[in-house]
Amino acid sequence: MSSLRSACALHKVGRSALAGEHFMHRLMTRAFILILLAFGLGSARNAQNKVPEKKAATSKPSLQPNGSSWMQWGGANRDFISDSKALANSWPAAGPPKLWSRALGDGYSGIAVEGTTLYTVYRRGSQDIVTAIDASRGTTVWEYAYEAEFKNSFSEKVGPGPYAMPQVVGDRLVTASGIGKIQSLDKKTGRPVWSRDLYIEFGGTRLEFGYSIGGRELQRRNGPATE
Hints:
Elements: H1 2-49, E1 69-70, E2 112-114, E3 117-124, E4 127-134, E5 140-147, H2 153-158, E6 167-169, E7 172-176, E8 181-186, E9 192-197, H3 198-202, E10 219-220, E11 225-226
Antiparallel strand pairs: 1-2, 2-3, 3-4, 4-5, 6-7, 7-8, 8-9, 10-11
């Protein structure tokens, strides 16, 4: 009898445990559903209250200063990495829209960029032509020409230059010709400030392949010039 009562008691306990477990399961399910409903209602309210973002108005492409520059060979740090914050992630299949194009003379010079002004050097006859160009329209801001005749077997094969890219240094533009002439010009007007001839002044030897100079700015800070 005792064993039978014990068995009945255990059976009742088991049923009670199962009932309690079932009750807790239903309670947790209902709580979970309430949480989901609350989250959904909150999201719906946020969606209703959210102010739609205004789409940027489309306009014709233009060139404006964006805080970046390319004022010497290799860029700001001479590592060929642009500091521009407005580079496009992709281009259309047909390429970027063309704003303008124009022909210059011969040469191997690069283009220095400061704001919306481009600086480069090209060849016309026996002269090097230093020019400033408005980047938004392609028009000439100013030009400065000087004699830089360079003739030998090398120049006859590849051309007499110029080979060097101009460099913007403060309010000056510094250029170098294939024969070793260095010019410093006012970058706003193209007016010559000073000129040096590396070959004549220092008694050097004409380089067979000409001069291709990528200058570095020298600064004086209470002492000798440092690079």
